[in-house]
Amino acid sequence: MLILKSLVNLRQFIKYFILLENLLICWVDSKTILVTGAGGYIGSHTIVELLNTNYSVVALDNLSNCYAYNETEIPESLKRVRSLTKKEFIWNKVDIRDKDALNDIFKNIPLMPLFILPH
Description:
Order of helices and strands: HHEEHEHEHE
Protein name: UDP-glucose 4-epimerase
Radius of gyration: 13 Å
Pathway: Carbohydrate metabolism; galactose metabolism
Cofactor: NAD(+)
Strand content: 15-25%
Keywords: Carbohydrate metabolism, Galactose metabolism, Isomerase, NAD
Enzyme class: isomerase
């Protein structure tokens, strides 16, 4: 968290993590960001910082690298994010390789890509 606090602004923060981790981060509008791999360590910590910087977040994860009590429940890491930040975000269990599922999500959220890296 020390590294996160020392970064000058959010764009530097995002670029820093894009270089280190294969995350898909899309700018939805000026205050909403979509993050994949949201339930993992980097994704969940990214969401904490985004929420604390007053961004809205759309979180996606296929639960392959995080723990959820069952397939319909939000991952434990994201429950902790809500507990720590006291803020809400949109959660979807989806594999980003599932084109139909992504299209269903994107019908409600017009995305403008900012950074895209494959998982």
